[in-house]
Amino acid sequence: MAAQDTFKALLLRQDDDKKTQATLETLTVADLPDEDVRVAVEYSSLNYKDGMAVTGTGKIVLQWPMVPGIDLAGTVLESRSDAYKAGDKVVLTGWSVGEKYWGGYSQQQKLKADWLVPLPAGLNTQQAMAVGTAGLTAMLCVMALEEGGVTPESGPVVVTGAAGGVGSVAVSILAKLGYQVAAVTGRESTHDYLRALGASEILSREEMAAKPRPLEKQRWAGAVDTVGGEMLARVLAEADYSAVVAACGLAGDFRLPTSVMPFILRNVRLQGVDSVMCPLARRTEAWNRLAQDLPMAQLEQVMQVVSLEQVPEQAAKIMQGQVQGRVVVDLNG
What we know:
Layout: E1 6-14, E2 20-28, E3 37-46, H1 48-55, E4 71-79, E5 89-93, E6 108-111, E7 116-118, H2 125-147, E8 157-159, H3 165-176, E9 181-185, H4 191-197, E10 201-204, H5 205-209, E11 220-225, H6 229-237, E12 239-247, H7 261-265, E13 269-272, H8 280-293, H9 296-301, E14 303-307, H10 311-319, E15 326-330
Parallel strand pairs: 8-9, 8-11, 9-10, 11-12, 12-13, 14-15
Antiparallel strand pairs: 1-2, 3-4, 3-6, 3-15, 4-5, 5-7
């Protein structure tokens, strides 16, 4: 792939009132950070964290100006690292890229070699971004359940925030692996979507967010929680003996109003799952599992592709809860 002298990028800047302004700009290679590997970015994705960065919600961006985009996939143009050479296909998620370091909403980017993962066999760069941080996180959660001894024979697994990026992929993977999946959503319009992904039961957000007693009737052999707060407290209170709950999000609340009773009376394990600083070996294992265990054709049916110019509009929509599934950003579209 020939390297362009100039290329497009979405830059975030703060105005005098500390408000975030997102503008499409033309950059040169000299504008990029001094990192080891220069990549022609083919696709990125839009996650909730990207939505927060682009709209200026919360304190996501730590350096200004910032090229947002916490995910990217593309082709190496040049490399000072022995780990990669020109022509290699690579994926990047996490490592505070798009927050502290320039990220994926640029047609070219320079990155640390240690941040990159070789594109797994069986995936192209668009598919990798349909997976993205959300899919990687979902796979790490499934691996946590498996390592805790939860099998399809153990009983139902519940996924909270099931219509979101992480939840959608978790439902899809778990269903393919043979688990009985209960999906929690606050939108009736997503019920058919979640059933198509493999959910066998749909639960309302209101039911699952109701304040629980310290222990409730046992319902779940395992759980993938993206919400936190009262909903995670209820999941724990309803967990089976020796259940594993993989917690990876705080879309509802970062606090956890619960007691120690599920842990000491029912032997429940609460396993935190982080994809941002996940070690390379674990990250590579998860990507290889995704290429094997994620029904990609199914995921592509619930994926929408947008251009770089459309990112600010889509960022506003994801912050308003109007996005389901995965949004892929085509850097050349």
